[in-house]
Amino acid sequence: MSLNLTDVTLTYPDGDDARLTALDRVTLDVPRGSVTAVVGPSGSGKSSLLAVAATLIAPDSGTVTVDGTDTTGMSRGDRTELRRHRIGIVFQQPNLLPSLTAAEQLQVMAHIDGRSPARARTRALELLDAVGLADVARRRPHQLSGGQRQRVNIARALMNDPTVLLVDEPTSALDHERGAAVIDLLTRLTHQRSTATVLVTHDRAHLTAVDRTAEVHDGRLRLPDVSRC
Ligand code: ADP
Ligand code: MG
User: Which of 8, 42, 44, 220 has most ligand 1 atoms within 8 Å of its beta carbon, as the pocket-test mutant?
Assistant: First the structure.
């Protein structure tokens, strides 16, 4: 059980009658417990790849299968439900709510999911501990560093125990050392929690720990010749 994209093509409208091909017959299989990094220049299609994998955008053609469920032709409501239970998304900017503490940022996710407040609190504290933030659980975003905010963002994405973890340029606002720590953390969490993780970055510097690195150029994905996955 994992994440599979097969022969996925995505186009956007581009002026009168024209279409821009953002993803061109992309095939990608990400097993659980592994990180696939995706690198490529700005505009090459990395965020589009994540949006399709997250079922936020339906492709023009091809299939996206999440944890054994083919999402082709699913209603919007069913896709939302699938995301809620199976997919964790870490966007580039943490988008934390200014008035909530770190623990509450996570607990909100469980309210959406209908979990009891006490269980949600326990899980939030467990996850904050897992990302090294146990001692700042009561702080609000303005009392946290950029690296800490990004770690809250990652913990929040794991709140509902997703199968698939999709991460878009998590280090872009961080210095080298903090960026490397975030990538190491994501790799460790992936192995511990058995998520099928896709990590988009334009920075190759941190990628020694990931399981494999794919390259995207003009919407075409190239996987390494020799892969352990
Ligand atoms: P990356 O994340 O690698 O920078 P994107 O996936 O954001 O690349 O974009 C891929 C291509 O699709 C770019 O040419 C971009 O301008 C275009 N694009 C992205 N989103 C849209 C959109 N909503 N409408 C039209 N074109 C888009
Ligand atoms: Mg992008």
Answer: 44
Q: Which amino acid is at 3?
A: L
Q: Does residue 37 sit within a domain?
A: yes
Q: Looking at the whole model, is its pTM more than 0.85?
A: yes
pLDDT tens per residue across span 43-91: 999 999 999 999 999 999 999 999 999 999 999 999 999 999 999 999 8
CATH number for 198: 3.40.50.300
Q: Report how far ligand 1's centroid is from the alpha carbon of 201 (Å).
A: 15
Q: Is the CB of 23 under 6 A from ligand 1?
A: no
**What is the C-alpha separation between 222 and 107, in angstroms, rounded?**
38
Report yes or no on 122 lying in a domain.
no
How many domains, in total, are found in the chain? 1
Q: Does residue 44 form part of some domain?
A: yes
* Residue 141 placed within a domain: no
Q: What residue type is 28 in one-letter code?
A: L
Q: How far apart are CA 155 and CA 165, in angstroms?
A: 11
